[in-house]
Structure to design on (48 residues):
């Protein structure tokens, strides 16, 4: 299954927070890539 989503990435202190606007699911990581990877995993669980 493939779902498109609008993602916002914000830097907060030493973390990057990625949020999917349509679902409100958010995740964080020490880099942008980590935040996006973690958000992808969170979205997979959310839509499962």
């Amino acid at each position: 299954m493939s779902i498109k989503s609008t993602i916002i990435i914000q830097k907060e202190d030493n973390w990057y927070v990625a949020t999917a606007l349509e679902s409100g699911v958010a995740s964080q990581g020490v880099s942008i890539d980590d935040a996006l990877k973690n958000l992808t995993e969170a979205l997979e669980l959310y839509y499962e």
About this structure: Helices lie at 32-47. The longest helix spans residues 32-47.
